[in-house]
Amino acid sequence: MITMEELERRINAVSSMTAAELDALLHSCPEWVERKENEDRASDAMAQEFDRDVAPLIADLRAIGFEVKEPDELKSLPNAYPAAFPVLLRHLEKDYSGRVREAIISALGVERASGEPIRAVLEQFRRSGDEERNIRFRMADTLQIAADRSMAEELEQLATKERDEGIAGILTMAAKSAMKRKAVD
């Protein structure tokens, strides 16, 4: 049995070790083992919470024939994927946790989401002032992927007003990318 301090010293003292040696060394430190178990429990709890929170969306997607466990899996499906857009848009308006909202927005982050789906993301971005940064970032990224020429001017305006430099940069790139895409009704 070793302490965390001794564990760090031993790890830093060697130039290389096998995965099995590192695993044995880590498990010889009760404090590391306890931290790892706590992290694993927290991760499992977060995964269960996400599964519980996203269940209504997944049920609606399955009802129209999409056998997915999470919204992001839709991106790997063939051309029928746009059939899921109305369900995603309906759920985008609901009061979900940040992780679920981010997953829905991410699922809309494909070029095929042009038109009504991407306009809905743009509207969500307009109203997102107090929303978590990672969700606003995901919205800006989604807009960069699918926004069209009809949205370019507004994206430029939003970029100018945006107080987060990273998000402002993505909105600027979204405006430039949008100018290259034909407006979709």
Number of self-contained structural domains: 2
> Please, what is the average pLDDT?
90
N to C succession of SSEs: HHHHHHHHH
Distance between the termini: 67 Å
Uncertain residue segments: none
* Main sheet makeup: none
Give a count of the beta strands, DSSP E runs of length 2 or more.
0
Shape: elongated
Helix fraction by DSSP (H/I, runs of at least 4):
55-70%
User: How large is the count of helical segments?
Assistant: 9
Structural class by sheet pairing and helices: mainly alpha
- Strand content of the residues, in percent? under 5%
Radius of gyration: 22 Å
Defining key terms:
mainly alpha; 2 domains; 185 residues; 65% helix
Summarize, please:
The chain has 185 residues and is mainly alpha-helical. The chain has helices at 4-13, 19-27, 30-63, 85-92, 98-107, 116-126, 133-146, 152-161, 165-179.
